[in-house]
Amino acid sequence: MISHTTKIRVRYGETDKMGVVYYGAYPLYLEVARTELMRKYGIAYKNLEENGIQLPVIHLECSYIKPAFYDDIIKIKATIKELKGSKLTFEYVLLNNENQIINKSTTTLIFLNSITGKPCRPPEIINKKLSNI
Q: Who's near 1: CB < 8 A, 6+ residues apart?
């Protein structure tokens, strides 16, 4: 299983009037966790883009279980669930300061050829690095 845990401290601007993390901040947290997981395995989005590959999110599911608050440190465990054809699916579990699950999410991304804008197979380097899935 390919996974990585990232920590993020909640910033004031990510909260609402009640001091609770605004629901729209969670996709940004997921992006940080996903990017760090990929970087850990030697895959940088910048390199993909330089080689004509884009990796946009095409599906997001986000289940809010408990609130997070300003200045909390959130642990985000990102796991690659599946690499199938041109699609790459991640699962996330977010934990608060007390190690309670506050959010469970899933994203699906698709490999796109940046010239044609059409789905394409992942580069061979991706298949090699992520072959443990």
A: 79, 80, 132, 133
Q: Model pTM? A: 0.93
Rounded Cα distance between 70 and 15, Å, is 6
Express each pLDDT in 105-120 by its tens digit: 999 999 999 999 999 9
Domains of the chain: 2-129 (3.10.129.10)
Integer Cα distance of 79 and 65 in angstroms: 19
Work out the number of other CB atoms within 10 angstroms of the CB of residue 94.
26
Amino acid in position 97: N
